[in-house]
Amino acid sequence: MDKRLATIEQKLSKEQKDLSIFVKHVFDEYDKKVDEHRRLIASNALAGVKTSGVEEKVFYDTIQETKKWMLDVLERTAQDFEHTGDKNWDKNYPDGVHE
After folding, report:
1. What are phi and psi of 41, to 5 degrees?
2. Less Cβ crowding at N or C end of the chain, within 10 Å?
3. How much is the pTM?
4. d(Cα 66, Cα 46) in Å, to the nearest integer?
5. Is the Cβ–Cβ distance between 70 and 1 less than 8 Å?
6. DSSP H helices in 1-99
7. Alpha carbon of 41 to those of 3, 20, 46: distances in Å?
8. Are 60 and 73 within 8 A, CB to CB?
9. pLDDT of 19-71, one tens digit each?
10. Other CB atoms within 10 Å distance of the CB of residue 78
11. Which residues contact 8 (CB under 8 A, 6 or more apart)?
12. What CA–CA distance (Å, rounded) separates 4 from 71?
């Protein structure tokens, strides 16, 4: 994911890099939540509380899918920025992007 984010970030101009910084911050928060979740599950295991493997898989899959979705949105937004003023470009978002 970090490699893809870096690739998208290179496409953005200096003024638009705030978008990629925002996504990095959100990813950092997800990573903190995953760490908190791991600690909670570990402490529950020590206390003898069993967790469902299915629920764990859903939790981690949801985090990964959300990160992927955010990168997809950032990539389409970067494409719209890249093609600003191109009358032949079909915008990814109907409202487009405004600088």
Report:
1. -65, -40
2. C
3. 0.82
4. 30
5. no
6. 2-11, 17-46, 53-82
7. 29, 31, 9
8. no
9. 889 999 999 999 999 999 999 999 999 999 998 999 999 999 999 999 999 99
10. 22
11. 20, 71, 74, 75, 78
12. 8
Residue 27 contacts residue 92 (beta carbons within 8 Å): no
Six-digit token pair at 22? 């925002």
**3 state SS of 95:** coil
- One-letter amino acid for residue 90 of the chain: D
Residue reference for tokens 């859903």: 58
Spatial distance between the Cα atoms of 62 and 52, rounded to a whole number of angstroms: 15
| Structure tokens that stand for 57 in this block | 């898989």
CA–CA separation, 85 and 97 (whole Å): 10
Task: Give the position of tokens 């791991």.
Answer: 38
